[in-house]
Amino acid sequence: MDNDQLRLIQGLTRGDKQVFGEIFHLYYAPLCTYCMRFVNSQEEAEEIVQTLFLKLWSKHDQLFVNTSLQAYLYRAVRNYALNYLKQLKTHKEFEQYIGFQTKDRATNPDNTLEENDMQRIMKIAVLSLPEKRREVFELSRFEGLKNHEIAQKLNISVKTVENQMTKAFEHLREVLRDYLPLLAMVSTVFT
To answer: Which residue range is the domain that position 23 belongs to?
Structure first.
């Protein structure tokens, strides 16, 4: 490890804001470009890299880098991106399975009744979530906010939002387990 890398690591672990800014300006754009290899979305790549830098700063005193800072940051972005993709896949599969995403369709009395039953079941399931988790879920699914927007609105970290969403989906999957055949049948009408 060269002297400049050592200086950056030591400055960061001391909590030197100027050094943190230097690291941010040096690595932010290249890390976003690298992250795009995994997520294929500039916005998501930026959100992942911003989350990394937030965590890097909040845990700077616990930082342990045994390689170069650059290698550490790239490995961290890769791990964050892979975790993001895993959560995204789980969320999408769940949405498709229970029919959250519906398409416009012609309404007839039978479909309306099935839709009303499904909506009632879903509403009860969502209301059974713990208050904060329900709030995060509703902001995401019903108001269409992105994770970083929810984090900002609720004054929590993006990671907390991600964790709450994952737990919400796990809870809903469990609560709706007995209704999944009905929901799956009704959701085929919507697709």
So the answer is: 3-85
